[in-house]
């Protein structure tokens, strides 16, 4: 039985840093060269901060791509942005896809628009307030409401690729020990996991009543250690292809991405 879905608090506070006000004396002509140098230093500092917070590679923040589910930070939109890159990385392994995570209907709708892709979704929470499109997907059996803390209702290797977004951020290690092996069990060719970035913790504050607990955004080091503990190996070939395709398309993820091999 899926968790109850109650209204959440859509409030989100975004803090922005600002420069200290300049003294009126900067307009003095006699001292303009020194203040020009100071201005260049400050400009350089802002550019450096922008580089650091923008990030490089798999874990950079692309502010224009940050998704929102009822006003909160989400990796669901990130999955949709990454579909063309995933197709390049996984090729034929994208023909039978299972997406697991909140707002899976939007992901499945996008996947079904792609040529030669069959897609199914698992929504971990009740969808009583879902729109007509989502209810239609549920009626057709393409989307199921399932509590992922328990075994998934699919046979082993039912899907060529399993994509997970957001759902794992709301599970404690106790339940991750059960859920992660299940996700790997139903995958034949690979498992792609999108998780939040720890520095987004204040942005990803959802009502505890909806998910059972607040999101726990963990570092890549924590996840890698946990994957090793679960005997899950990195899919190095997929990582390389994904990075190459991402570079060509100037794609910079807003979430952490992990490409894992399924269990043999």
Automatic annotation (TrEMBL):
This is S-adenosyl-L-methionine-dependent methyltransferase. SUPFAM superfamilies: S-adenosyl-L-methionine-dependent methyltransferases. Signal peptide: none annotated. Keywords: Membrane, Transmembrane, Transmembrane helix. The chain crosses the membrane at residues 35-53.
């Amino acid at each position: 039985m899926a968790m109850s879905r109650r209204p959440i608090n859509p409030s989100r506070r975004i803090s922005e840093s600002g420069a200290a006000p300049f003294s009126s004396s900067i307009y003095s002509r006699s001292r303009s060269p020194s203040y020009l140098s100071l201005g260049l230093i400050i400009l350089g500092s802002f550019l450096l901060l922008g580089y650091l917070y923008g990030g490089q590679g798999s874990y950079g923040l692309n502010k224009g791509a940050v998704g929102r589910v009822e006003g909160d930070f989400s990796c669901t939109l990130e999955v949709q942005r990454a579909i063309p890159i995933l197709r390049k990385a996984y090729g034929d392994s994208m023909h039978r896809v299972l997406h697991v995570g909140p707002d899976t209907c939007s992901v499945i709708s996008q996947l079904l628009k792609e040529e030669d892709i069959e897609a199914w979704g698992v929504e971990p929470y009740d969808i009583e307030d879902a729109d007509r499109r989502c209810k239609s997907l549920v009626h057709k059996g393409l989307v199921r409401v399932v509590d992922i803390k328990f075994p998934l209702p699919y046979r082993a290797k039912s899907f060529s690729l399993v994509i997970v977004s957001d759902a794992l951020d709301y599970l404690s290690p106790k339940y991750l020990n059960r859920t992660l092996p299940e996700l790997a069990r139903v995958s034949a060719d690979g498992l792609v996991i999108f998780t939040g970035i720890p520095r987004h913790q204040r942005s990803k504050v959802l009502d505890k009543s909806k998910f059972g607990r607040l999101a726990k955004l963990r570092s890549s080091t924590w996840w890698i250690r946990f994957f090793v503990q679960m005997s899950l190996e990195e899919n190095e070939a997929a990582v390389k292809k994904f990075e190459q395709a991402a570079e060509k398309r100037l794609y910079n993820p807003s979430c952490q991405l992990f490409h894992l091999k399924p269990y043999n």
